[in-house]
Design brief:
mainly alpha, 3-stranded antiparallel sheet, globular, GH125, Glycoside hydrolase family 125 protein, hydrolase
């Protein structure tokens, strides 16, 4: 039996679209996360599978339920589900703030035999800055929509304090951090798991990208812009709720230093004189000019930072990303868009197609992006991880819940339900 929220969303979409394929795809995947990925555990906590991998990613789980946020005030059980997910995310972070994905129980399941050995509850221990940021953003979105500040419990603030401590340590990764990651013969960090050489920039070091691929240079600019947004969020939460928080000084110190680091190291100048954001830098003069389809990306800056879609450097960066200057921009007979070194060459991610639509106010363009995704599902009624620019039958991952959710978010955004 379909949830009334699902029926309401499907009715809204039906009224806003004439294209049968768009409606069929939305109807098939909107409840995907609700029905196929969310699990209520014996302790009444919420666990969200990433899809075809039996683990919960902090990033993915937040994004998978984003299309349900516009309805949480109307449906008490969905509101409770989001509340419990936030609590679960912060609980996981408190156990291991360097991990990106977790098991539903301490069963020692894992992707590989990584070093150092991880805790039994941890599926994978790749430090990705966004793994902290997405739960903070979700807690903020929940509060802004519901006005329920009970989500900001004592345990919440203890975990925030832990996150801020890690961010301060990773600002000085070379001298202060004990983190390393080694996976034999595959995607481990260089330099015995410590990563490539960096110089302090006051930005936060990250071992891996949102794609779970290792960083080439370890200061990821979209990740640090996202961290700035989260620090702004934390200041607003503390101020609005009249909290006497000793964290404010730490938050402000981090904010100012990271912002200065981005301005000093994260902006590149193209031969034509235009300024754009680099994707990664190392503080030693090296800058990686590209973008990856996974969020946070440079393309997603208006969604996940304090900068809006009209920011001049963002507009320059967007033009660069959506051109052949970006080595992961692919243009073919079926579609054009951003791919990733995480997937085969010439494969475009529907996720990035959705982000391209979500970061503009142009409704006609949004509709074009929706059609682009719907017409490249290879008649599976699933939004895949990626597909070949000339042949949608060549795709990766039969089931990718985050991709489904991002398509639904774009469709609802087109219908006027912005998140």
């Amino acid at each position: 039996m379909q949830h009334n929220m699902v029926l309401e969303a499907q009715t809204i979409v039906s009224k806003n679209f004439e294209d049968t394929k768009i409606k069929e795809l939305f109807n098939n995947v909107y409840d995907d996360a609700l029905v196929n990925t969310i699990k209520i555990l014996d302790d009444d906590s919420v666990f969200v599978l990433t899809g075809d991998i039996p683990a919960m990613w902090l990033r993915d789980s937040a994004c998978q339920i984003r299309p349900y946020l516009p309805f949480i005030n109307k449906y008490a059980d969905i509101k409770e589900l989001v509340f419990k997910l936030i609590k679960k995310q912060f609980y996981y972070i408190s156990i291991d703030p360097y991990a990106n994905a977790f098991n539903e129980a301490p069963n020692s399941n894992r992707w590989d035999e990584d070093l150092p050995q991880q805790k039994p509850i941890v599926w994978e221990r790749k430090f990705e800055l966004d793994s902290h940021c997405f739960p903070i953003l979700l807690s903020y979105q929940y509060w802004k929509i519901t006005d329920d500040n009970s989500v900001f419990s004592g345990e919440y603030w203890k975990t925030i304090d832990l996150i801020l401590d890690i961010w301060e340590i990773e600002q000085k990764h070379e001298s202060k951090s004990e983190y390393y990651f080694y996976r034999p013969e595959t995607d481990y960090l260089s330099n015995k798991g410590k990563g490539s050489k960096t110089e302090d920039t006051e930005m936060i070091w990250s071992g891996f990208r949102p794609s779970d691929d290792p960083c080439e240079y370890h200061f990821n600019i979209p990740g640090n812009l996202f961290a700035l947004r989260c620090l702004t969020i934390l200041k607003e939460i503390i101020s609005h709720n009249n909290m006497d928080s000793s964290l404010l000084l730490k938050i402000e110190r981090l904010y100012q230093s990271i912002k200065q680091g981005i301005n000093s190291f994260g902006i590149a100048v193209l031969p034509n004189g235009e300024k754009i954001f680099a994707y990664e830098v190392d503080g030693l003069g090296n800058q990686l000019l590209m973008d990856d389809s996974n969020m946070p990306s440079l393309l997603s800056i208006p969604l996940l930072s304090d900068l809006d879609e009209n920011n001049e450097i963002y507009l320059n960066t967007r033009s660069f990303i959506l051109s052949k200057s970006n080595p992961y921009f692919f243009e073919g007979s079926k579609a054009s868009g951003v791919g990733s070194p995480h997937t085969p060459d010439n494969h475009i991610w529907p996720l990035s197609i959705a982000v391209e639509g979500l970061t503009t106010s142009d409704r006609d363009f949004k509709l074009n992006q929706i059609k682009k995704i719907a017409s490249n599902d290879n008649d599976t009624l699933q939004v895949h991880e990626s597909f070949h620019k000339d042949d949608a039958s060549q795709y990766t991952r039969e089931w990718f819940s985050w991709g489904n959710s991002m398509f639904c978010e774009l469709v609802l955004d087109y219908c006027g339900l912005q998140i």
